Amino acid sequence: MLSAIAALSPTVSGTVTGYSISPALPAGLSMSAATGVISGTPTQATAVIIYTVTASNTVGSISATVSIAVNKLTPTISLSSLTKTMGDPAFGIAAVSNSTGTISYSSSNASVATISGNQVSLTGVGVTTLTASQAADNHYLAGSATAILTVNAAAWVGISYPSPNVYTVNSSISPLVPTIGGTATAFVISPALPAGLSISNTTGIITGTPTQPSVAKDYTVNATINGSSYTALVNITVNDLAPTGLSYPSPNVYPVLSAIAALSPTVRGTVTGYSISPALP
Question: Which CATH class is domain 158-239?
């Protein structure tokens, strides 16, 4: 159909003055009354029909049959594969075809994508096959095309810190660097960090040398990432130094019944208590 046919010429003996055919040929085809040649370009599909051709002259006529069918064409239909990221908005798809038949769409995996009309909504990470099914029209058969839709996981956006972290008074800490997904522009921490430590408000890195002991505590870092607010907890402990350099004046000799001059120790670091062994005199 829609393609010119090779001319069908009759074979006949004797002189023919005219030809006729019955029933009428498919639309677009015709027969020459003078030569009996059938030619043309069929424009409408028809099932197999047996046509009777009559060749005649002034003396008489003769008939023969010819079988003609006009088949619909196979459509050329295509649908493009594509890749999306989970979280992308719904989008439209459109198959390309040389047929005018109505096209409907379906997804093989509803856990990855669903389709309403030609609008595709993402439902999860994975792969699904999209199918465009086209109904037949006057010229073309029904047809279909498939494409692969791949849905990738969205990139992680947020902030986290190594935790817990234990430091010692008067010892410089290794920079505490956050893991950040996205583009960060500002950092704020609460409550205030132990004395001697600080956080960069542009990088979120915690640095410094703690100067006072601090019990284990969770600190909340609020970061502006990709224009939105994200938080992370970081746990920090600052332990005191063990005292060093403890000494007393020695030796010491005292008479009985006389108060002694107080013996004061020399020590470095913070001391919260003293003990002695064995028991003093």
Answer: mainly beta
